[in-house]
Amino acid sequence: MHHQWLLWPKFITLTLTRMSMVVLSCLKQHLLFLVLRFLFSSPTGKALPDSRLIQPLVYMERLELIRNVCRDEALKNLSHTPVSKFVLDRIFVCDKHKILFCQTPKVGNTQWKKVLIVLNGAFPSIEEIPENVVHDHEKNGLPRLSSFSDAEIQKRLKTYFKFFIVRDPFERLISAFKDKFVHNPRFEPWYRHEIAPGIIRKYRRNRTETRGIQFEDFVRYLGDPNHRWLDLQFGDHIIHWVTYVELCAPCEIMYSVIGHHETLEDDAPYILKEAGIDHLVSYPTIPPGITVYNRTKVEHYFLGISKRDIRRLYARFEGDFKLFGYQKPDFLLN
Ligand SMILES: *[C@@H]1O[C@H](CO)[C@@H](O)[C@H](O)[C@H]1NC(C)=O
Ligand SMILES: *[C@@H]1O[C@H](CO)[C@@H](O)[C@H](O)[C@H]1NC(C)=O
Ligand SMILES: *[C@@H]1O[C@H](CO)[C@@H](O)[C@H](O)[C@H]1NC(C)=O
After folding, report:
1. Do 175 and 183 meet the contact criterion of CB atoms below 8 Å apart?
2. Can you state the angle between helices 196-203 and 215-223, rounded to 10 degrees?
3. Would you say 92 and 142 are in contact if contact means Cβ atoms under 8 Å apart?
4. Whose CA is nearest to atom 13 of ligand 3?
5. For range 316-328, the mean pLDDT
6. Which has the minimum average pLDDT: 83-87, 131-135, 314-318?
7. Mean of pLDDT over the chain
8. Which of 241, 65, 308, 59 is closest to 164 using CA atoms?
9. Distance of CA 318 to CAs 83, 226, 244, 314, 322, Å?
């Protein structure tokens, strides 16, 4: 009896001490962020004129989020991918400045490639690179990581500055659809004449509909758990619509910075600075407004597409949404 009365308070004190230690260590992290936020913001709560001051925090948080999502067992299939030849083909190498750039179409990749081609020295300035050479990696002096030996690949992955750019996953798909199947300014007839008919044959719901490929057909193809069957026939053209996970393996490769298309005005100069090349090149001017997420446009494209098909599409791209901090589009799913 006597003993028990003595033991209880001790047990409680110990438990409380342990709990408070955990709470304190959490608080410490949050306080650090709060203090940094406070230091870098003006008394009115608005960001200082030079908004670049708060950036290191934003980029740290992005990398932290990726690390956390990569550890989530329930998302393993959607966040992990082997560092295959397909991935190594997506990564371009600037040896002179020790930079690796993973190509993710529809977020201004041509501009980044031009910047790196100039840095590698094949052309003296961005304006002097002929359009037909930008994507010709035999001639533009911007090799793919896959063209190196295993040891050379590992060395570069370990020591180089590595980055890529992402944007809202659904807006990206809309952009790819428009660019490849509707307008196709680059004249790539195989999208409309080979790929589109392949998708329509397998995924068109309304068999009496004779129009060319519709966004709905595209959504049903991408959301099909057996999409790989068609992917294999389309070859590398699928880079325009496979997940960022499949393109760049963000859980396997420790990237240095992830840029967001939506904040490119800040992110582009930050990447140049972190890569140590801001004194050598600048990112071309970004037309105002083009990088802003447009919910009206997204709603417009998904109008009339069944919830089931949209949910299947989300199920495929959930890894990209979670890894890069894009909000789940509940307005489309529910
Ligand atoms: C993950 O993918 C593997 C192989 O494709 C499959 O066998 C497994 O069931 C998947 N796991 C989940 C949780 O989806
Ligand atoms: C199928 O497509 C045809 C041709 O565009 C259209 O007239 C018809 O209403 C469509 N049917 C359904 C169920 O949407
Ligand atoms: C958003 O998209 C809609 C429909 O495509 C377009 O009419 C509108 O101008 C866009 N808004 C902005 C701010 O770009």
Report:
1. no
2. 70
3. yes
4. 294
5. 98
6. 131-135
7. 85
8. 59
9. 20, 17, 11, 6, 6
Residue of 294, 299, 301, 302 best suited for mutating to test ligand 3, as the one with most atoms within 8 Å of CB: 294
Q: From the CB of 295, is ligand 3 less than 6 Å away?
A: no
CA gap 56, 44 in Å, rounded: 21
Classify residue 135 by its DSSP letter.
T
Q: pLDDT tens-digit profile of 146-187?
A: 999 999 999 999 999 999 999 999 999 999 999 999 987 677
Contacts of 298 by beta carbon, 8 Å cutoff, 6+ apart: 168, 170, 171, 174, 329, 332
The CB of 212 under 6 Å from ligand 2? The reply is no
| Domain regions of the chain by residue span | 85-332
**Confidence class of residue 139 from pLDDT cuts 50, 70 and 90?**
confident
The whole-angstrom distance between residue 261's C-alpha and the CA centroid of its chain comes to 9
Contacts of 261 (CB under 8 A, 6+ apart): 107, 108, 165, 166, 167, 168, 291
Cα-to-centroid distance, 204 and ligand 2 (Å)? 11
Indicate if the pLDDT at residue 230 is higher than 80.
Answer: yes
Q: Which residues pair with 161 in a beta bridge?
A: 99
What single-letter DSSP state applies at residue 144?
B
Whether ligand 3 lies within 6 angstroms of the CB of 296 is answered as yes
User: How far is the centre of ligand 3, averaged over its atoms, from the C-alpha of 303 (Å)?
Assistant: 15
Task: Name the strand (E) or helix (H) holding 101.
Answer: strand 99-102
Please give the Cα distance from 326 to 20 (Å, whole number).
33
